[in-house]
Amino acid sequence: MNLGRVAISLPAPGLDARACVELAAKAEREWGYDAIWLAETNGPDSFALAGALATATERSLIGTAIVPVYNRTPAVLAMSAATVQQLTGGRFVLGLGSSSHAIVRDWNGVAFERPLAHVRESVAILRQALAGEKTDFAGEALRSKGFRLGNVPRQPVPIYLAALREKMLRLAGAIGDGLVVNLFPASALPQILGAYRAGGADAGRDVAKHEVVCRFQVMITDDLPYARNIVRMAFGGYAAAPVYNRFFAWCGFEDEARAVADAWARKDRAGVAAAMSDAMVDRITILGSAERCREQVAAFVEAGVTTPVLSPLAIDRRAIEAVFEAFAPARNAQ
Length: 334
Prior knowledge:
Blueprint: E1 7-10, H1 17-29, E2 35-38, H2 46-56, E3 61-64, E4 67-68, H3 74-88, E5 92-97, H4 101-107, H5 115-130, E6 136-138, E7 143-145, E8 159-162, H6 166-175, E9 178-182, H7 189-202, E10 211-220, H8 224-240, H9 242-250, H10 254-265, H11 269-275, H12 278-284, E11 286-288, H13 290-303, E12 307-312, H14 317-326, H15 329-332
Parallel strand pairs: 1-2, 1-12, 2-3, 3-5, 4-5, 5-8, 8-9, 9-10, 10-11, 10-12
Antiparallel strand pairs: 6-7
Helix pairs in contact: 1-2, 2-3, 3-5, 6-7, 8-10, 8-11, 9-10, 10-11
């Protein structure tokens, strides 16, 4: 069974930063994982955690999937990425994305405007800075002049981009070094990869062999109704957020997306959960027995995902470790 370059996602539910570092070390040394991808919402800061992981691991790739381009300036992103790349000795990947209205506008008080421009121009400034050049850029949304990085890393920092729909996927293909995706059915992968590769082709690039990083929400359980309800509670807000609501409709869940948006507008949280059908939940998450979960992830790998990133839907460390153990490269290689 081909699980691709299976990786773990941190932070994990209920674990503080120190526990995450301990878990990463165990994932590398005992379970055989060689990649750790960091999500950033309202928990540990990704760059601080990445720095700690750099000293606790020896060979694992450490990537962000993702940090937003809105709440740190390109100069700050460049300093952070360069620092982590130096600490890891070349094992770091900077994953960027536009994030969402809730995180950018509501939490950080920053206008969530012109996401394509923000991503495109952030990458342009970062590439200047990480190359050791003095920045000289003025764009539609961002500008930077005269900044020169004082700690240029010896190894280049790959920049992966997160994308949901056509325009951002094409931009990612045009300027990114890899793709980050999540929360979609395998049936939508051809149109996702098609848009990414078309963007690359328009820019004169062949991106067919780029890494495709996909975070999967995973619960190993015999109680599927319970697991589905956990997904509904955890991701109802995502499904209602404008960027994800439009994405789910684009992926073929038009009825569910419309019903979720209507319920959200009425402030009917129960209605939001009810609007997420069993079929939708089952196709965008990985739920069931360990064997069934592995089979589902393998199907995504067969369709084109290169790097499945396991994000446990769990409430305690034992359940989190059960997911990582079930997919452990050291175990599944035997």
